[in-house]
Design brief:
single chain; alpha/beta; Rhomboid-like fold; four-stranded mixed sheet; two-stranded antiparallel sheet; elongated
Length: 402
């Protein structure tokens, strides 16, 4: 089986064959790609024992990243070599996976668009740590090739004859960072940069637990109200929590919050929960749990508040204002954020943004009085503004740390 050093060298060979150039800084490679973008690759042998120290070192390295010469690159791929199963699950090895995931969130907040891929030398597999899908499919194929080779290798991990002829570029074996730049190949460097619209692994990321809880609360409220209708002849929760502006003026202020969990029919809740699932998948991996909840609930409140002032005495319910807030945050990512060029090339962001905008205006054009457009626009604008404020705060923090 390959040692970590063997695997690092083999990955270096693969990257050179894909047209990457060794930068001379650590185990780092770069390749010019479509739109002048590139990929910065780092693959230390992260283990359970050094995960915390690696996280701290990386945090220090990327403080004030906006002023770094690498800031011109839109994508960053961190390859974590796992020889002992430290990243197999959330609880193993004292939370090594949790530590690396926290580092992933930190780097995203610093403006570093990154993906963490763990190359498991024991099983020959490559798994995603941070959620999302890799920007460069060729790189992932190269990692999978080395991982599979490591699992099949029957030597001691020091005999490189078994893999030296995999690629043309030759490699120095002085240490884990000693690559020759002269061996760079001439492979096509235009590897596409997109994210899968449906990626099962994203739905298992730790931040998605917030989305599942929100969906669970809405579904539970809907089921309970249907049961209440059968048993009592009326919707108990809707009676208590629907947005009724006349009752709000009488002091029942909670009705500006509770409508976010109530829905008026199966089609209504199904459409909203599907939207929450997909928008939640995209937005949750770019923000902390607290930030995600702030975007969701403040947007929902803002939409209901706008409805309070402009909707008259019409009744209103539904999570669509809060969901439109997630849409507003996502559209901020592709229009004004520091990493907007990356998000514009990520296929699911552009596709979902189009759906959000379509639904935002469809209520005005076709649905008439059946849609609370004030809640939609209020939530959308609030989500956009909150995302803007979050990035401004993080940018200010980065500047202070420089």
């Amino acid at each position: 089986m390959f040692s970590c050093n063997d695997a690092v060298n083999a990955i270096g060979n693969e990257l050179l064959s894909l047209g990457f150039t060794y930068t001379g800084e650590g185990s780092s490679f770069v390749r010019n790609g479509r739109g002048g973008t590139g990929v910065y690759v780092q693959f230390p042998a992260v283990t359970a024992a050094n995960a915390e120290s690696y996280s701290q070192i990386t945090r220090e390295r990327f403080k004030g990243f906006g002023a770094n010469s690498y800031a011109r690159y839109a994508g960053f791929l961190f390859v974590l070599l796992d020889a002992e199963g430290a990243f197999a699950d959330e609880s193993s090895a004292g939370g090594a996976r949790r530590t690396i995931y926290d580092l992933y969130i930190y780097l995203r907040k610093q403006g570093v668009v990154c993906e963490f891929e763990a190359v498991d030398l024991r099983t020959g597999t490559v798994s995603n740590i941070g959620g999302g899908s890799a920007a460069d499919r060729q790189v992932i194929n190269a990692l999978q090739k080395v991982a599979a080779q490591s699992a099949a290798f029957e030597g001691t991990g020091t005999d490189q004859a078994r893999y030296q002829n995999l690629t043309q570029p030759q490699i120095r074996r002085e240490n884990t960072t000693g690559y020759d730049e002269t061996g760079a190949g001439n492979a096509d460097s235009g590897g596409g940069r997109s994210e899968k619209f449906f990626n099962v692994r994203d739905f298992g990321s730790s931040n998605m637990i917030i989305v599942y809880i929100l969906i669970g609360l809405c579904v539970a409220a809907f089921i309970y109200d249907e049961y209440s209708l059968i048993k009592n002849g009326y919707y108990l929760l809707q009676t208590w929590g629907i947005q009724d502006n006349e009752l709000i003026r009488q002091g029942q202020w909670w009705r500006l919050f509770t409508p976010m969990f109530l829905h008026g029919g199966f089609a209504h809740i199904l459409g909203n929960m599907m939207s929450l699932l997909y928008l939640g998948r995209v937005v949750s991996k770019n923000y902390t749990k607290l930030e995600f909840l702030a975007i969701y609930f403040i947007s929902g409140f803002a939409g209901n508040l706008l409805s309070f002032f402009f909707l008259g005495n019409a009744l209103s319910l539904g999570a669509s204002g809060a969901i439109m807030g997630l849409g507003g945050a996502m559209i901020f990512l592709i229009t004004l954020s520091r990493n907007r060029q990356y998000y514009r090339r990520a296929g699911n962001y552009a596709s979902l943004a189009g759906i959000v905008v379509f639904n935002l205006f469809y209520g005005i054009i076709a649905a008439g009085g059946n849609v609370n457009n004030f809640a939609h626009f209020g939530g959308f604008i609030a989500g956009f503004m909150i995302a803007w404020i979050i990035e401004a705060i993080e940018t200010k923090k980065s500047e202070c740390e420089m």
